[in-house]
Design brief:
Layout: E1 2-8, E2 17-22, E3 25-32, E4 35-40, E5 54-60, E6 68-77, E7 84-86, E8 102-103, E9 105-106, E10 121-124, E11 127-132
Parallel strand pairs: 9-10
Antiparallel strand pairs: 1-11, 2-3, 3-4, 4-8, 5-6, 6-7, 10-11
The structure holds FE2/S2 (inorganic) cluster (FES).
FE2/S2 (inorganic) cluster binds at residues 43, 45-46, 48, 50, 78, 80-81, 83.
Length: 139
């Protein structure tokens, strides 16, 4: 395995994102509600670069003619067709079985890391490193 430093935690203040690339793997890093989460930059619908989508809130379930807005800063909207995903879990808002491809950020573990891909991002102090399998270690 080889570690690829991709960002500094200090470069990701709350509410921000950063797009990083190692080889042909593009990852969106998001600082949402005090946690750093990471997702592959591929929408599960049709492959759009979902991580560049607008971050906002969304309409909450409510009674007829009662419009409530919430989850500000936690919803990622895909730029192609507008599917909305909860950045805290990676779940599509309408169909939670449809999810962004999460990459675990360790430590700390997060609920989003339950759908692990075998390419974690390791947090070492202020550094975030993408760990790719099958490569020789960095010297
Ligand atoms: S490609 Fe993302 S919603 Fe269609």
């Amino acid at each position: 395995m080889a570690k690829h430093p991709v960002a500094k935690v200090s470069e990701l203040p709350p509410g921000t994102r950063r797009l990083v690339r190692v080889g042909n793997i593009e990852v969106g890093l998001f600082h949402v509600e005090g946690r750093i989460v990471a997702y592959r930059n591929v929408c599960p619908h049709a492959g759009a670069p979902v991580c560049v989508g607008r971050i906002s809130g969304t309409s909450l379930p409510s009674a007829v003619y009662d419009y409530q807005y919430g989850h500000e800063g936690c919803i990622l909207r895909c730029p192609w067709h507008g599917w909305e995903f909860d950045l805290r879990t990676g779940e599509h808002l309408v169909d939670p079985a449809t999810r962004l491809k999460a990459i675990p950020v360790v430590p700390p573990a997060s609920p989003a890391s339950e759908q692990l891909e075998p390419i974690p991002i390791e947090r070492e102090g202020d550094s975030l490193c993408l760990v790719l399998p099958g490569e020789s270690p960095n010297p």
